[in-house]
Design goal:
With about 375 residues, the protein is an alpha/beta fold. Strand 13 and strand 14 form a beta hairpin. It is elongated.
């Protein structure tokens, strides 16, 4: 009997180890992840349960402040009276999308500081071809804290397409890196959600774990280049600024070796004599940024270096010799967007192209909210 028990224990340990290996491999070396969701009928909650069985993540549920919509017997449904209640919420947002008063109130959230997370997965239902108004409120309130993060989206619907939800996501969440294509989980494939998620996760570009933010992006015209930042107080303060909003500056060519100009604010200095080289990004006198396409020696504070461009490529990118060059500093590459959905005929073909959203309930279908999301 003892030998049998030892054998069973060994088998259980092996199984657990294999499960851990699968989960670890799914998001290997990934930064900390938060799953944010809203669920009206329960479908999105089931999706989140299947998702978090496969990845390590904190979970936060969004709830409306108006509890008449979520009481046990739901006497006042969003879809009642010809969708009058839900449609009124969506129309209010569409009428004034930049006004916080246009969005329905939600309960205070359990996580108010997103700085500890590098990856955020949004799980939302579709309401009549748009993102559920409750989730729109959360994203409106917290999109600034998502700047520079990697974001993914799963959308639950009955059968409708999700282009409207994609548009809502792109409007609400800016200056982020969308991890990859969205996952669409609808009424026809909801029962297969675990396998859909399993196949979707490896396609995502999760942010790697890091102790400090070490990337910044410079955009000039239609081109964006990454900058690897050094670790000093100046870059930490700059990153804090960029986490709130991108910084737009106007720079001018100078000396045949740089473009430079005022940041509009000061950063902490740690000046030293530096032989600046092509690609170096430098702080001068605490409040000026210099980006080099040539060389110069002076007392500077080093910020970072543009990745992977030759001197001739740098001259082109930086518009060497020109004046009034519009430059944007940000924490987002700005190169990834939410794509349109790629539907697949067979039930086994479970990869759906879209963006970071999955589809959700029918916009003009009476089944819409009732079947969820």
């Amino acid at each position: 009997m003892k030998q049998i028990m030892m054998l069973l224990a060994a088998m259980l340990l092996t199984a657990c180890s294999k499960n851990s290996e699968v989960k670890a491999a799914t998001v290997q070396e990934a930064g900390k992840t938060l799953v944010v969701y809203y669920s009206y009928t329960g479908n999105c909650q089931q999706i989140v349960e299947s998702l978090t069985a496969q990845i390590e993540a904190d979970v936060m549920r969004i709830e409306p402040a108006d509890k008449t919509m979520v009481s046990t017997d739901r006497p006042q449904k969003y879809e009642a009276n010809g969708y009058a209640i839900g449609t009124a919420l969506l129309n209010a947002i569409k009428a004034a999308p930049n006004d916080a008063a246009s969005y329905p109130a939600i309960d205070p959230v359990s996580i108010t500081d997103l700085s500890q997370y590098q990856n955020i997965i949004i799980v939302t239902p579709l309401w009549w071809s748009q993102m559920a108004a409750i989730m729109q409120t959360y994203l409106f309130n917290y999109s600034a804290q998502m700047t520079g993060k990697h974001v993914a989206l799963i959308v639950s619907s009955h059968s409708s397409g999700i282009s409207g939800v994609v548009a809502d996501a792109e409007r609400l969440v800016k200056n982020v890196t969308w991890m990859g294509d969205a996952l669409w989980i609808n009424n026809a494939n909801h029962s297969n959600r675990a396998s859909l998620i399993q196949n979707w996760l490896p396609t995502l570009n999760f942010a790697e774990e890091q102790t400090t933010m070490n990337k910044m992006y410079i955009t000039i015209g239609e081109q964006t280049q990454a900058v690897t930042l050094v670790d000093n107080q100046a870059t930490k303060t700059l990153v804090e600024k960029l986490q709130q909003t991108p910084v737009n500056v106007t720079l001018n060519s100078s000396g045949g070796f740089e473009i430079w100009g005022a940041l509009g604010f000061s950063l902490p200095t740690s000046n030293e004599q530096i032989n600046a080289q092509p690609g170096d990004v430098i702080l001068y006198n605490g409040s000026n940024i210099c980006i080099f396409y040539g060389t110069n020696s002076w007392s500077y504070t080093r910020l970072g270096k543009i990745d992977g461009l030759s001197e001739s490529q740098l001259r082109t990118f930086l518009k060497a010799g020109e004046s009034n060059i519009s430059v944007t500093l940000s924490l987002s590459s700005g190169t990834t967007t939410i794509n349109s959905v790629r539907s697949v005929a067979t039930e086994n073909a479970i990869r759906y192209e879209e963006s970071i959203i999955s589809r959700s309930a029918d916009g003009n279908d009476a089944h819409g909210l009732q079947s969820e999301e």
